[in-house]
Amino acid sequence: MVVTFTRLGRRFAAGLAGLAIAAAPALAQPTLAPTTLAEAWLAVLEAEPEPVTWSHSVALRHATTERLPQQRERLVEELATLVISARVAGNAPLAAGLAAWAEALEEDDPRMARTPGRFDLPWLGANLRQDPPLARLAHWGRCDVPDWVEVWSLAGVERRPWRSGIDLAALMDGLPAAATRRADHAAVIDPLGQVRRLGIAAWNPETTPLAPGSRVMVQLPGPQGLRGALPFPGAFPFPGTTIESELINERLPAYLATRLPGDDCTLQGKGEEG
């Protein structure tokens, strides 16, 4: 019996050794690199103790990157036409405000961008089919929550201090009259890149809370409003300027929705275009 148990013990020990040898290569393999954004976020959480502010997390798809330089160039061209029209019509304040829009766009780096939408880990975890492969992203990351709200008004571009409880109505009330003269609507772009068109005139007042890092564009008045804003009737719009103003109202908010929702951002480039 002793011999029998000894033989069984040797066989058992040999079996364990064989399993250990077979498992060794698998245990020795390095951790696989993340291939999707959700996996990359999990790696960030494992490596960094600080919590992530998901409301200001971003990602930029290669498909978005390709279009941005052309979009910015087209906006600058349309604004140049409107600036000339306003100057000829004698509306120097409006011309200066739109020139400031064009200057801000010219100084902007279209590559420092984000694709509008949600790219935070909680949302991706609940929508795994929307989890993008890293190979399709130019970069991803998050921005520190800023202390401003950016305003593109008819008087130019400025950043107003953000404070708890501020909403669109309060922001508009704090602007000079020239910044919103005869404007009926504003486009509100939240930190996720979502765009909402809300009324700001006396006849259609609407409001919404503003998160830090939001952008607000006072939309150009329609033809009737622009004519009334000029010193003599019938001078504006000149042929073609109605189309330009409509294009600005439609496309500038869409471009602003691709801007990063903060100044201090941690971005990581992963993968190749595909």
Question: Can you tell me about this structure?
Answer:
A 5-stranded mixed sheet has the order 4-3-7-5-6. It has a 3-stranded antiparallel sheet with strand order 1-2-8. 42% of the residues lie in helices and 15% in strands. By secondary structure, it is an alpha+beta fold. The chain contains 8 helices and 8 strands. It has one domain. The longest helix has 27 residues.
Notable traits:
single chain; 274 residues; alpha+beta; 5-stranded mixed β-sheet; 3-stranded antiparallel β-sheet; 8 strands; disordered N terminus; Caps_synth_GfcC-like_C; signal; Capsule biosynthesis GfcC-like C-terminal domain-containing protein
Instruction: Tell me what portion of residues adopts beta-strand conformation.
Output: 15-25%
The helicity comes to: 40-55%
**Number of domains in the coordinates?**
1
The SSE order reads: HHEHHHEEEHEEEHHE
Distance between the termini: 68 Å
Question: Strand order of the main beta sheet, please?
Answer: 4-3-7-5-6
Largest sheet: 5 strands, mixed
Q: Helices and strands: which structural class?
A: alpha+beta
Structure annotation, total helices: 8
What's the layout of helices and strands?
Elements: H1 2-28, H2 37-47, E1 57-61, H3 62-88, H4 92-107, H5 121-126, E2 137-143, E3 148-153, E4 156-161, H6 168-173, E5 185-189, E6 195-199, E7 215-218, H7 223-229, H8 241-256, E8 265-268
Parallel strand pairs: 3-7
Antiparallel strand pairs: 1-2, 2-8, 3-4, 5-6, 5-7
Helix pairs in contact: 3-4, 3-8
Pfam family, one: Caps_syn_GfcC_C
InterPro entries: Caps_synth_GfcC-like_C
Domain Capsule biosynthesis GfcC-like C-terminal: 160-220
